[in-house]
Amino acid sequence: MANTKDEPVILAHECYVKKDYAGALQHLNELETLVGTSNKRVQHNKAVVEFMISDMKNVDKLKKAIAQLTGLVFPDIETKDLSSPFLLYNYAVLLYHSRYYYQCTVLLERLLACKNVKDNKLFQQIVLLLLEASLCRRTYEKTLEIAKAHGDPLKSNNDVSELFERLVSRAQLLLGQKIKLNLKPDSIENVFIIAQQHYLNGDVKEAASTLGQYKTIKYNYDLKTQGEDIWAAINNNLGVIYLSIKKPFLASKYFQHAVKEHFKAMECEDSEKLIACRDRPLYVYNLGLALLAANNSEGAFECLVEAARHYPNNPRIWLHLAECCVKKCCSEEVQQYTVKKLGSGPHTRILLSKEGKGDKYSTSGESFAIPSLSLEFAALCLRNAITLLPNQEAPADVTAPIIQAPPGPPINWKQRCELKNSTFVLQSYVLLHLQDPLSALVSANELLSQPEASNCHKAWAHIYAAEALINLDRISDAIEHLHPPMIHELVTVMPYQMKDLIAVSVWAKAAVCHILRGDLVTARKILLQINSPRVLPLQIIEIKLAAMSRRSIFFLAAAVVMLYFSIILFMLSPLHGSRGGYYAGGYMNNFAFRHDPPVNWCSELTWQTPPSPDVVALVSYPGSGNTWLRYLLQQVTGVVTGSIYMDYGLRVHGFPAENVTDGSVLVVKTHAVPMDSDKFKSAILLIRNPRDAILADFHRLHRGHIGTAPKSAFKKKSHENKKSDWSTYVSTQLTAWETLHQMWLTRFPGPLHIVFYEVLVRDTRNTLQGILDFLNYNVTEANMNCAMANKEGIYRRKKKHQDFEPFTADMYKALDQVRNRVLSMVMDYKKKHDHSHVRRT
């Protein structure tokens, strides 16, 4: 009987080695009839052979087979059974190619530690894969430790010694070690590593020349055999070289070629293979950096938004996105004014008129969670960046990596401090533009309290803090930040042009402070000391120092500011100010100027006291009824609801807790994917049909929270801040709609209560009661009846264009496909979580 069993085993192995996978499967089936279907090794080998028969394309089937054999749900690795090293190695291969590098590394390390690996070839494969996974995790010291501990058998094996040498050399180079490579430029892999050494040593010309040697090498390195496209990699590396020598335009061309070559490779049938390298996010990220350096903020923004979807935990990407928004919205920082003098003597009048274009702020009123080149979205990006750079004690080794930031290198303590300080500076700048001086002051003071802040960062923090204090009418405090000797000491190491700019800014702001205090003599002396081509006409100061009205002093100060540094923003008018104010254009006309009656609340709104330790998220795609549900919750409970955004229109129309995200509010509105598991302990997911949600958000983009977009808007090829036609807009937002719900249904670890908007409309009372049960909040019958009597409120859009259908048949097909996929996720979620988990306790 033993010989009978051994024969199909030997024959199956021989067929597998010859790549006769059909024959191997036949012999395995014969073996299965002899040993039964419960033999784990036979079932594992059958799964591998069937996977190879599919040309490594049927990945899902292999995952299911391995999950059944290991008892693990992909990508979990918590198992105590390490008795099947071949099976677990193949599971690690799946994890590696699915980019779960951490799980792959942990699993392989456990295999090596358990001493169950008796096969030498398997041992070598485990070590090689572990080296590669640790390189992908950018833990280069770990790579060298593994090589030192387990590398001796590989060095003596001619079949794998060259590959082992390459992996070790890569780790040494990336650690900055000055080594002599023992690699010959006789293979495309070696050429890349040699070129990388030249690049890291600063010899970029030699690096580019070395990459060019691929033309003289015979190689078989393509997507089908190795899973990577050589042309995309070469163009990407050349782009990195040219970007490092400050040639962003040339670099962007190479990155564009890399993206195109990768896209071309992904169009072929081999792209479905498990080993296919899908590096588009990396190429797009590099392209975004090059375009940003080339001052193409719009192109860079599109690239970095795509990169952020793949690498949401990289604070560098969020900071770069904010930079794109600032470059777009504040590109003309210094504006020209024409100064005219009318009359003479005591009847002299000074007239100022602005030249050039009008508003430079994004005033479309769109949701801040939807990526757009606006300062509001910049503020959100900067908040994300700060969240990803938590406060912590300085480690003993400040050069050791502490934050992983793929696709770039990890961030060490020194880089973390520089990145966080830069984020605070830009946040203060953006918040001043958004007319939020109090938050700007908090950011500036936070920077000044950082122990590792550079002098440059401190100088800008003092300047922005002074601007914020001027806006807050705290002139004495502002003067403390504008002490010229202190600023001069901070900027001594900066370039001359930058020092001159800061000096002009400081003196101008000091002059403003003295004007606001009524000390025009001192203000005149200060302005006379400014050595700048932007000299203020002295006629403005040459006035009689008689009693002036408060309003006159304010306008005089505003004149000084506009001529010197236009980022100082004064609250010279009420909230519903001129078109140049925050609420300009359509947003103001359709929300802040509405003549609706005030909201009649069932009870006076209060804050949760004491604040709840658990913060509950109210999640939805924009246009899904989030504001209306917040209104209903406030009506029935009398407790305010918060938001991660600052919507000033909502703040003055019934939602006083805008931008409040702690436990003092009932729920916190968000349109973002789950980023920080510690922020929200549980969540309510409000889902609306994507057709209605996308259309509602499109209406809001054009006419605010309750307005309706005109028919002409659906025919335009571009609209404000959205340079795309209606069809592209639907396609883009449909992807965003699916991604948002997918992330919350699959990535959020806490309790999740799912609410369908259509059910909320149809059965408001019972749906609202279910939400209250989830929140563990009791209300009286009178409160519920009052909320139902006032459930309409002023926050629901009236339907128009009944004779107009903006969606095409193809759009409806795409909408149905995405909607069905999300509904399937909802069903899977409800199956996996019992009733007690879905509700809060």
Short key terms for the protein model shown above:
841 residues, mainly alpha, Serine Threonine Protein Phosphatase 5, Tetratricopeptide repeat, five-stranded parallel beta sheet, 36 helices, disordered C terminus, transcription regulation, P-loop_NTPase
Give the end-to-end Cα distance, rounded to a whole number of Å.
60 Å
Into which percentage range does the β-strand content fall?
A: under 5%
CATH topology of the largest domain: Rossmann fold
Structural class: mainly alpha
CATH architecture of the largest domain: 3-Layer(aba) Sandwich
**CATH hierarchy class name of the largest domain:** Alpha Beta
Give the low-pLDDT segments: 356-365, 531-556, 558-597, 718-723, 835-841
Number of domains: 4
Q: Which oligomeric form is depicted? A: single chain
Mean of residue pLDDT? 78
Radius of gyration: 32 Å
Taking strands numbered 1, 2, ... along the chain, how are they ordered across the largest sheet? 6-7-5-8-9
How many distinct beta strands? 9
The portion of residues assigned to helices is 55-70%
The coarse overall form would be: globular
Number of helices: 36
User: CATH superfamily assignment of the largest domain?
Assistant: P-loop containing nucleotide triphosphate hydrolases
Short description:
The chain contains 36 helices and nine strands.
How would you explain this protein's 3D organization?
The chain is mostly helical and 841 residues long. It folds into 4 domains: 2-218, Tetratricopeptide repeat domain (Serine Threonine Protein Phosphatase 5, Tetratricopeptide repeat, Alpha Horseshoe), CATH 1.25.40; 220-294; 328-357 and 369-386 and 395-572, Serine Threonine Protein Phosphatase 5, Tetratricopeptide repeat (Alpha Horseshoe), CATH 1.25.40; 597-838, Rossmann fold. The protein is 55% helix and 5% strand. The protein contains 36 helices and 9 strands. The protein has a 5-stranded parallel sheet, with helices on both faces. A two-stranded antiparallel ribbon has the order 1-2. A two-stranded antiparallel ribbon has the order 3-4. The longest helix has 24 residues, at 809-832. It is globular. The model is unreliable at 356-365, 531-556, 558-597, 718-723 and 835-841 (pLDDT under 50).
